[in-house]
Specification:
The chain is an alpha+beta fold. The protein has helices at 11-15, 49-67, 97-100, 116-122, and strands at residues 20-22, 31-37, 40-46, 80-82, 88-91, 103-107, 110-114.
Length: 135
């Protein structure tokens, strides 16, 4: 029988730890979030503190999977969403991700794609959807 225990903490354990941040000293540098459960540490890079935290949590899940190959990493993004800039992001089918990346989107230059790590670095976020109060 497979034993799912290891010394590496489950990714959910990193969610309850407050990150330390290394803010950029120069304009244009990335914020770094550091989440530590001694002796393990994960780092996340992004344009903002919330984005850096999400990136660090994603890195924790990837590291956990290296110890537990059966662990399924969930995308931190919905399969399709619109961001604050009005771009629609669509999850690429699993068989095409090596070629196209994890998500496709359309911008002024046409259709493009990005992997999850790049989206976290850019601090892409789904635009909140609010229920219409009149309904």
């Amino acid at each position: 029988m497979f034993d799912d225990r290891s010394a590496y903490p489950h990714p959910d354990e990193f969610k309850v730890v407050r990150p330390e941040y290394s803010d950029p000293e120069d304009e244009g540098d990335d914020v770094i979030a550091i989440i530590e459960i001694a002796p393990f540490k994960v780092l996340g890079y992004s344009a903002t503190r919330p984005g850096a935290r999400r990136a660090a949590l994603y890195e924790a899940a990837k590291k956990y999977r290296s110890y537990h190959p059966g662990y399924r990493i969930e995308s931190p993004f919905p399969s399709e969403f619109e961001d604050a800039d009005g771009k629609t992001w669509t999850r690429v089918p699993a068989g095409k991700r090596d070629e196209l990346g994890d998500y496709t989107f359309e911008d002024e230059e046409g259709e493009d794609s990005a992997d999850i790590e790049q989206m976290l670095l850019w601090d892409v976020r789904p635009e909140p959807v609010f229920e219409d109060e009149d309904e």
